Every structure is written in structure tokens, then in C-alpha cells.
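tool=predict chain=A
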Amino acid sequence: MITSADLIALSPLVVLAAGASLILLVIAFYRSHQLTFGLTLLTLALALLALWLAAPVLPRPVTVLLIFDRYAAFFLGLLFAASFVVTLLAYGYWARRPGTPEEFYMLLLVATLGASVLVTSRHFVSFFLGLELLSVALYVLIAYARTSAHSVEAGIKYLVLAAVAAAFLLFGMALVYAALGTMDLAGMVAVLVNPGAMLNPLLLTGLALIIIGIGFKLAVVPFHMWTPDIYQGAPAPVTAFVATVSKGGMLALLLRIFVPMDMLRTSTLVLVFALIAAASMLVGNWLALLQNNVKRILAYSSIAHLGYMLVAFLTGGAVAVAAVSYYLVAYIATTLGAFGVVIVLSGADGEAEALEEYRGLFWRRPWLAAVFTASLLSLAGIPLTAGFVGKFFILAAGVGSALWWLVVILVVGSVIGLFYYLRIIITMMAPLPEPASLTVAPVLPLAGGIALAAVTLAVVWLGIYPSPFLQLIQSTVATLL
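tool=predict ok
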């Protein structure tokens, strides 16, 4: 039976669902980009407020499907904030393009709701429901620019590959259920206390299939092939959402499944995750070197960064959760800044994705060039940025667990990544081909300017003064273990 305290804990998700439903009803009677945009921001703000109001009743399980604890609250706040920034950036993008953008905001809320269900899942059923809620919304969002052949192609590719990944997940869940007799994560932990339980071949096969499904959503090697095409073909705000909210929700679920179960004491699983991490760091950085498309560079870069996070994940325990959580926050803030510049520069005639389009950006739009430079330096792990502190904690976690070969690959990958990040920065600093090209830059949309300023401030602040945020993260770790 659902109590009032359960409803309070569930209120952030209820607010998201109600906001998406309200926008759908409003669109049916009156189309207004400004109104829909405002309702979306209001919904996300109310969801953040509901999360704060729900704090006194946490931790609290709501039915056998969902768990609301401090760990979930931390990641829900992160996802809501990221969606808020994407919404701010998307307004100017869709205002410059013909068509009807109202449904975009409704789908954005539905996708955020799906990612939120993933974060709070404590059962395979809610895991799959959240994943499908997220995926179905993304099918439409990726192909939202339906007049663009690239967008439609990306949507179809994602549809097919996501369906295949869902099949792997379902089969894996079935095998795990057959081996353990439960689909509840807490129940699995109780069963796996027996050391011999992890030797069950049925269980290991099921976990392998689940890892394949999760690997697709995280876009780690060898499940990464969809990433550059979807990043390039999808509208820039959708690409930013996929790179941050979608991956953030799935990574939070990965930690919730594997860390409490202490499955990393099984050498087979450790080897699988270690090989995925090493391949992601090397392949992601290497393929990024060959690109002349900014969105594809950031796509391959994201593969490498997920590999970095898997290194910390392999350390296990509270150290893994803290290191991955901090790096994820730094990665989301940095990625929103990088894609925010792409969104702002994209016009009605197409996406600002070719590297040559950024030549001389410093002389044309110095504020945007500064934001992009800060984001790229953070992705490269340069000091005084959030990326540097995050990478330092991952290296410390890897060294503390004696994962020496992964640490070496991480360092080598970071050096390779520095080359293509600096390549973009040098292109922005290069002189314009002709003096006549120095035209007056268009006015930066207010919403986009606020969003870029906020994420840039976060990138710098987390790199200079990370202590309060680290304490916040460490206080959430205990609820997961």
C-alpha cells in the first residue's frame, strides 16, 4: 500500500510525468514555442524542488520496484539540472529553425523520466521499464529534424540497435532469474552471499548479456559503433542530451547493480570490464584523431571518457562510487559546455559541425571560443578544470587498487586526447582567411548565454574548489553500500 511518505518520495517523478502530460494537452489546443519552453523549465524546477522536499523521508523504498535514497537523490538532481541546461540551449536552436518544436520538450521530459526511473530502480522490471521509456523517447528525438536525411537515418539506426540491445537485456534478465530465483537487486545480494553462487554458468551468462545491453547504452567498445553516426545525425540539443542525461542514468544504474553485489570479486567479470575499459580508452581516442567533424570528435571522445570511468568502477566499493560520481559530474558539465557552443552556432541552414566552421572563432565570437576552450581543456584533464580533478581521482583509485596496466592505458589515452582537443583550440585561434570575414556576431540568445555561463562556472569551480562537492558525493556513497 502506498503511503503519504511514499508519495512524497515519488513526487519528483510524478512532477515529470505530470509536466509531460500537461505539455501534451497544451499542444493539442494551442501551439506556442515560448509557452512550451516555459512549462518545461517550470516542470524541471518543480522536480528539483520536490527532490529537496522529499529529502526528509529518504531513504525509502516505494513498492518492490523503486528505491529513493541519498544516492538516487544525488543522481536525480544531476539529471534534472542537465535536462534544464539542455532545455535552455534548445530554445534558441529551435527558434532559428522552421517547424513545430513543441513536441520536442514533451519528449525531453519523458526521456528524463525514463533516466530517473533507471536511477531509482531496485528491480529488473523497473530497470527495463525505465530503459524503454528512455529509449522510445530517444527514437523520436534523434529523428526529430524529419526534413534532414541524416537525422532520420540516425533515428532508424538507433531504433534497430536499441531493439537488439533490449533483446540481450531481456534474455540476460531471464537467465539471472533462472539462476537466482529473484529479480530484486536486494534479493540478489542476499543470494550471492554464498561464494559458490557466482560460479553458476547460467548466472554468468545472464550477466554477460546484461553487460552487453548496458554497454550499448553507455557506448563503450565494442558496442560503440552507433555513437558517431547518432551524434552527427541527431539535432545538436538531442546529441547533448544523449551524451549526458542518457549515459548518466545508465551509469548510475550500473553502479547500483554491481557495486552492492560485489560481483567484481569474480575474476571473469573483472576481466570483461577491464578489457572493455582498455578498448574504449584506446579506440575512442585513436578514432577521434581521424575526424574533421566536431560532433564526431566529441562522440569518440565520449567513448574514451566512459572507459576512464570504468577504470574507477573496477576498483569497487566506496572509492569506485565516489570517483565515478565526481568524474560523471565533471563530464556532464564539460560536455554540456562543448555541445552548447555547437548548439548556439548551429543555424537554420544546418549544424555547426565541420571543424573548418570553427576557424577564427576567437576573433568572431570570443565569448563562445572561451567557453569551448574551457570545456575542451577540461575534457583533456588540464589543471584548474573539473576534468583534471576527476581524472586525478580516477588515477588515484586505479593506483590504489593496483590496476597498473589500465592506469598506463589511461595516461596514454589522455595524451592522445590532448592532441585532438588542442587541434580544435588551435583552429579557433587561427586567423580568418579574409579580413572581410570579421563580421558582427549575432546576439547570443539569453537562455543559451545563461546556460553556457552556468556550465562554464561549474567546470572552473569544480576544478579550483572541489572539496564541498566531494563531501556531498561521499555522503551519498554510504546509502549504496
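Residues 145 and 151 are 6 Å apart (CA to CA). Residues 149-180 form the longest helix (32 residues).
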